[in-house]
Structures
1.
Amino acid sequence: MNNLIWLTLGMSAVTYLGRIIGYCFICYYQQPNAKVEAFLKAVPGTIFMAMVAPQIANQSSIVWIGSALVFAIAAKTHNLLIALLVGGFSFAALQYALN
């Protein structure tokens, strides 16, 4: 379990480091236009969905409900942390209630 935490932290650091370096590189040479800024803001969400969507596809209805809540909250609030917390708590509550 300890290795999993370090692996997750390492992958997160590399992901955001790459994003920061790219943004600094673009800003150093030219001011990014609105399309570039919108793309850079959308990248973390798309990477997250690319990793999570295949895992959700073959799961139970509890996971589907939790995922739908995460998507709805993320679309409404534009805050991924709050959406993930709500999804985690809803999954735990549903798991507890149905088992």
2.
Amino acid sequence: MAKRFLEINPKFQAWLRTLPDDLTDELKDTIAHQADLLATQMKRELNARGAVRTGQLIASIGVAPAADGTYIKDGLAVEVGAGFKNRGKKRRRNRMLAKFMEHGTRHHSARPFVRPAFEIRKAKILAALKEATDRVIQQTRGR
């Protein structure tokens, strides 16, 4: 199971469910853009650590809608990671390889790329989400 770096406040989730679709579009766009930037940063971190042999892991890094209970409305919860651009055995292999790279094995030391990428992007992600949320709040007050 993947570790979560950002948890959404349940009260905020409930508020999001009450918004009409046209107001959530701005949040969706911000989330999608920030998720793409995080995926790009993860690829940079892999390259910086010399963890590229075939390029298959880097090519598999992408963004997908969250597949669990955090899936609020289409596009408001996403996962960023390895294997999203693959199917079947390749998907499982890339996810396992990403896990081994991030945490290491008994034979190989860890070469983390997910946590460092997130730490680099974290402040910008939160600022962008705050700006988008503030804009949506202003729009809801005007209705």
